[in-house]
Design brief:
It is a single chain. The protein has two domains: 112 residues, no CATH class; 48 residues, no CATH class. Helices cover 48% and strands 11% of the residues. It is built from seven helices and seven strands, in the order αβββββαββααααα. α4 runs antiparallel to α5 and α6 runs antiparallel to α7. The longest helix is centred in the last third of the chain and has 24 residues. The chain starts with a helix and ends with a helix. InterPro entries: Endo/exonu/phosph_ase_sf (IPR036691).
Amino acid sequence: MAAFRDALNEANLYDLGFKGSSYTWARGRNPNHRICERLDRAVASPEWCSLFPAATVSHLSSSWSDHAPIRIAIKCSSKPSNDKRRRRQSYKIEQIWISDEECEKILSENWHGVGVGDPVTSLASCSQKALYALNSWGRRKFGNLKAKIRKLSDKLQAIQFHSCSQIADDIHIRKELDSLLE
C-alpha cells in the first residue's frame, strides 16, 4: 500500500473521497469471516480538480459483483433549462416479461390486423400497437419495475453502507434484484 501511495504522490494525484458505503469490495458469505475493504477509488490531479470543483464520487451498490461500482458526477456550471416540455413516454420490453407465458399471446393478439399501405408503415404500426399493449400489460402484471428496482437498490445500498456483516440480507436482496434485472 505504501508503494501505491508513493506512486500517487509522484504522479501528483489525490483521492477525491466518496459518499456511500465505506467499502467497495466484499468477500465471504459467513458474517464472522467476511472481509470488506475500500479497494477502488477515484483520484485526480489538482488541475482536474480545479476544472471540476463540484465533482462527487459515490460508491454504488452492486447485486452482481463483489466490487461496488463507482460513479463520478461532474456538475456543469451552465444554467438550468427552463424548458418544461413534457418528455415523450418511452416504451420498451422488459426481459422479465419474455419469460412469462402471456407475453407471446399479447404480442400475437396485437401484431395482426394493423398496417395497410407500404411495408415500412405497416411494420411501424404493428410494432407500435404491440409495444403499447405489452407495456400496458407489463405494468398491470408486474407493477412499476423501475420503482421496485430502485427500492431494492436503495435497500442493498443501505445494508452495504451500514454493515459488512448483514450478509444474509445482502444475499437475499441481491437475488431478488437479479431476478428483476434478468
